[in-house]
Amino acid sequence: MQDRADFRYESFARERLSDLGEDPEAFALAYNLLHLSTLLVNDLETRIHRPRGWTLPGFRLMFKLWMLGPTQPVRLAEVSAMSRSAVTNAVHTLERDGLVERRPLPGDRRAQVVALTPKGDLAVRETYALQEAREREWFATLTSGERRHLTSLLSRLVAARPDDLS
To answer: CA end-to-end span of the chain, whole Å?
Structure first.
């Protein structure tokens, strides 16, 4: 495993950064997180979401609606780490495909919520089962305790992100 090109590059870059007086550990952590994220997103999109005509961000919005129920677009942006315009664009696409619909917010006819349609609800349920199975394959190399620990560490990093990024 350690003779793969990506591992050789990481090792080379760490040595080079160390020689330059930089922090090779910070590089390695960011490199591996970004690399894993790219591999995981590409895998899930290729195997699960693109065959259904979706992107992973589109599925994530539908999943959030499945969990939260009808939700205002601004709230979807907040919980998705997406811009409001990205949420709006994704909602337009999902609405066009009959997976979500906009409804007036009860008590405020000017505001709207986004909700799954029955077709969208079924699609999320079926697709989540496939995605969860693939995620289990990805993380099978870790024990249950390691998965919990890694999740805890990643959550701490997300919570402690620099203020100018939130």
So the answer is: 36
Instruction: Tell me, yes or no, whether 3 lies in a domain.
Output: yes
In Å, how far are 59, 76, 83, 92, 117 from 96, measured between CA atoms?
Answer: 14, 18, 20, 6, 12
Report residue 127 as tokens. 């697709």
pLDDT tens digits, 63-109: 999 999 999 999 999 998 889 999 999 999 999 999 999 999 888 87
Domain range for 33 is 1-52
CB 115 within 8 A of CB 103: yes
Tokens of residue 60, six digits? 């994530």
Strands (E), 37-154: 100-105, 108-116
Average pLDDT over residues 103-132: 92
The pTM is what? 0.80
Phi, psi of 116 (to 5 degrees): -70, 145
Split into its structural domains, the chain has a count of: 1
3-state DSSP assignment of residue 23: coil
How many Cβ atoms sit within 10 Å of the Cβ of residue 41?
14
φ, ψ at 127 (rounded to 5°): -75, -35
Helix 73-80 to helix 84-96 angle (10° resolution) is 110
Measured distance CA(47)–CA(68) in Å, rounded: 26
